[in-house]
Amino acid sequence: METTIELPALARLVTAEDREIPLTATLRYTTGDPLAVFVDFPAEAALEGEDVSWTFARSLLDQGLRTPAGHGDVQIWPYGRTRTVVEFHSPFGLALLQFPTATLRRFLVRSYEVVAAGREDMGTAVERGLNALFGGV
Known about the structure:
This protein is α+β, with helices and mostly antiparallel strands. The chain is 25% helix and 41% strand.
């Protein structure tokens, strides 16, 4: 049986003009994709006016809470003692968000209570990845 953890998280979207716009994102972890975490944004926070979900490695979030991490579409780093920056890159631009570090930590701890680091079912993760790549061929 698949288990899903969801945690609403207040964030600040930092604009190009250095304005901070508050928004609520949902942090999500599911045992069906045990290596990943998801950050879901409501339609009003997206350029196209539709819900947006970003997926990235749970280990990236773990590392980014302590030290700058990521070299691709998602980069994470501590910002002072109480905030963590998550930067999302897409072909349409980038979004820079600041989350309370305590919220991200709490979410990560809850995910590790469900599936400990290093105990992920790799067979399921590989099968899901192959299906995504090859479309179930």
